[in-house]
Amino acid sequence: MAADTALVVRDVEGSAAMAACIGLYTEVMGLRPADGGLNPRLLTALQTNGGIVVAAYESGDPARPVGFAYSFLAREPGGELFQFSQLAVVARHLQGRGVGRLLKYAQRDRALAMGLTRIRWSYDPLKTRNAHFNLDVLGGRVSVLKPSMYGDEGFGDDTGEPTDRFLLDWDLKRLPMVQPELPDRAWQPGECLAYGDDLLIAVPALWDLHRTAIGASAATALRTSLRETFTEALTTHVGVSCLRVTDDLAVYRFVPRGTDQEVAS
Ligand SMILES: CC(C)(COP(=O)(O)OP(=O)(O)OC[C@H]1O[C@@H](n2cnc3c(N)ncnc32)[C@H](O)[C@@H]1OP(=O)(O)O)[C@@H](O)C(=O)NCCC(=O)NCCS
Asked: Is 98 in the pocket of ligand 1 (CB under 6 A)?
């Protein structure tokens, strides 16, 4: 992004603007025709029935989105209403430069204006940059792991991978927690360390590279073992952080349930 280029986040209006967002989504996620996708009619229906459809634009190019997110109104049986955010994508060349958080803040503002205080979404536990964004940058909390949530195999760039997903809740009234220092040690991918009351779980920082380096069967074994470790941790704890400690390794922090309520905004 050029220094003099401002970003604008706004509601997406009209089918041409929605089609441009779908194009961005297809490109960022590496979707193939067989992967299926979105269409402007569905986005319009969601937007006009309690959903939120927002996009980010560079000021000099108001027709070409560089970020896109949408969510819909949801409720668990007997529970409160919230937004379920099905996706957020940022153009590859602008990732890591603040567009994603502006999109999420726009979703938050709109959800709060509807009287909602929570946005939920899901993500692959082994996408550690997403994890860091969701937990440390935004302040979301992971409390559930859904094995193979979207079926046995992922789509787009994740073809061949299972679709394990963490469910993450973003309490819109809570600020992100400042995380304590992690212990300085030689971490092994897959290990779970009890650290005070917390659980620290080490994962490869760049899963796609790691799985290629260790081979398919070792990658499957590591993913399966991490699935079990996360599931066990979530019986007593919630995930609050994922920090990269070396180029190759990131560490999740899980804190005991009920101890992460402080710091209301
Ligand atoms: C996840 C995503 C929406 C975040 O948007 P973003 O514009 O990259 O996020 P921001 O720049 O506001 O925040 C970046 C932070 O998130 C992390 N991050 C997450 N994904 C990242 C990526 N692909 N590239 C760089 N940083 C990324 C960074 O570590 C950074 O943390 P820091 O500020 O402490 O350094 C975006 O990276 C993306 O589109 N990724 C690919 C698609 C995807 O996985 N979407 C989510 C599931 S639908």
From this structure: yes
For the CA of 89, the closest atom of ligand 1 is 39
Mean pLDDT along residues 150-179: 86
Pairwise CA distance, residues 66 & 149, whole Å: 28
Tell me whether strands 118-123 and 65-75 are parallel, antiparallel or unpaired: unpaired
Q: Give the C-alpha separation, 248 to 20, whole Å.
A: 35
DSSP H stretches of helix in 141-190? none
Q: What is the pLDDT of residue 226?
A: 97
177 CB near ligand 1 (under 6 Å): no
Name which residue sits closest to atom 26 of ligand 1, judged by CA: 96
* pLDDT tens per residue across span 100-120: 999 999 999 999 999 999 999
| Gap between the Cα atoms of 125 and 66, Å rounded | 25
130 CA from centroid of ligand 1 (Å):
6
The Cα-based distances of 108 to 52, 61, 82, 234 in angstroms read 10, 25, 11, 26
List pLDDT tens digits, range 67-101.
Answer: 999 999 999 999 999 999 999 999 999 999 999 99
Ligand 1 centroid to residue 134 C-alpha, Å:
9
Confidence grade of residue 146 (pLDDT, cut at 50, 70, 90) = very high
Does the beta carbon of 99 lie inside 6 Å of ligand 1?
Answer: yes
Expressed in percent and rounded to 5, the helix, strand and coil fractions of the chain are: 30, 30, 40
